Amino acid sequence: MADSAQSELQTPGRGNGLRDVYGSRFLLKLLVRKELKVRYRGSVLGIVWSYVKPGVQFIVFYVALGVFLGLEQSPTNRGGLPNYAIYLFSGIILINFFTEALGNASRSIVGNGGLIKKIYLPRQLFPVASVWVSAVHFFPQLLILAVACLFTGWHPSLIQVLAAVAGFIIVTLLATGLGLLFGAANVYFRDSENFVDMLLMIATWASPVMYSWTMVQHKLGETWYALYQVNPMTIAVETFHYAFWLPTTDGSAGIPPHLLSLWIPVGLLVSAGVLLWGQMTFRRLEGRFAQEL
């Protein structure tokens, strides 16, 4: 009898990981609502700011890279990318989703320290809620991209739409996994926030958001290019280019070889591995969150 009771004991502060998030869906919904209300409390524009930032970012990059550096194809510049505005914006909204999700998730445990010290609830809820809030900002931007694509002759196939869904799943898994990892590490080492900021800066430029994959292949060669292509963000961005940008062109620009057959499965596998790593690290460290906070 005593052995049975002892076997049911669990380490204080530890739960069942992401399974608890699924079982606490109502709490997750409340946290997402709370995050949105707190973020825009006292703001005049409110959620419109989620459109202003990518809009300004798009204009700056388009003028600097598309116009001044000649990445936009024109009658006098045949070496640029056709419909560069669509190419650029389809990458920007995805990379912004990743940077916002990971940045907020990595700070979510420390930011909710007062609540964590008062009551027990599944701690994974906080990083996951941050990713959901970022998704709330992402989908309206995706709608704007789709409308812009329609005006430029967008006629995607079912495979292209499914590729975009796969790209979104890759980014979501990656952001959640890294958010769990750095969210837990940030409780013990506050330098983690600075490391995440550097990581997000690198992620913006290490993916083909503003330039073509052919430039990378030409500069790095096949061996190093294959290593570059393993980056899940690179794969996800290319799926969005394949789904939204390529159907608005004559198709001559092309996509990375084996994107559908090789790189999308690789991206899903790597992102799932990062999620598992983040979850295992989070569960190991969460037992002392209340004490450390």
TrEMBL record:
Belongs to the ABC-2 integral membrane protein family. GO terms for biological process: lipopolysaccharide transport. The chain crosses the membrane at residues 43-64, 84-105, 125-153, 159-183, 195-214, 260-278. It is found in: Cell inner membrane. This is Sugar ABC transporter permease. It comes from Arthrobacter livingstonensis. Residues 28-244 form the ABC-2 type transporter transmembrane domain. Keywords: Cell membrane, Membrane, Transmembrane, Transmembrane helix, Transport. Its main location: membrane. It is a multi-pass membrane protein. GO terms for molecular function: ABC-type transporter activity. It comes from the Bacteria. GO terms for cellular component: plasma membrane. Pfam families: ABC2_membrane.
